[in-house]
Design brief:
Length: about 80
C-alpha cells in the first residue's frame, strides 16, 4: 500500500466508520468509496491524516454519495418514498 493509501485507511478509522461496518460494509469498500474524493478535494492534505479528516468534513457537501455515507452520514440525501 502506498503512503496515501495508508493515510486514507487511517483517516477512515479516525472518522469512525462503525455505522457502515455494522451494515456489513468492509473497510476496503469504505476506503475505495473515499479515495477519489481525497485525491479530488484534499490532495494537498494527503501526508497529514488530521488534515485529510478536516478536509473531508469541510467538503462534506462536495463528496461523492459513497464517500459521504462513510464520512458524513448526516449529509446523505434523503431517501425518496415511492
Amino acid at each position: 500500500m502506498t503512503a496515501p493509501g495508508i493515510a486514507l485507511g487511517s483517516v477512515l478509522l479516525l472518522c469512525g466508520t462503525a455505522p457502515l461496518a455494522a451494515q456489513g460494509a468492509s473497510r476496503q469498500a469504505d476506503e475505495d468509496a473515499c479515495r477519489p474524493d481525497v485525491f479530488r478535494l484534499c490532495v494537498s492534505a494527503i501526508r497529514d491524516e488530521a488534515a485529510i479528516v478536516r478536509c473531508l468534513e469541510r467538503e462534506a457537501e462536495n463528496l461523492s454519495p459513497a464517500c459521504r455515507a462513510v464520512i458524513a452520514p448526516e449529509h446523505r440525501p434523503a431517501r425518496r418514498r415511492p
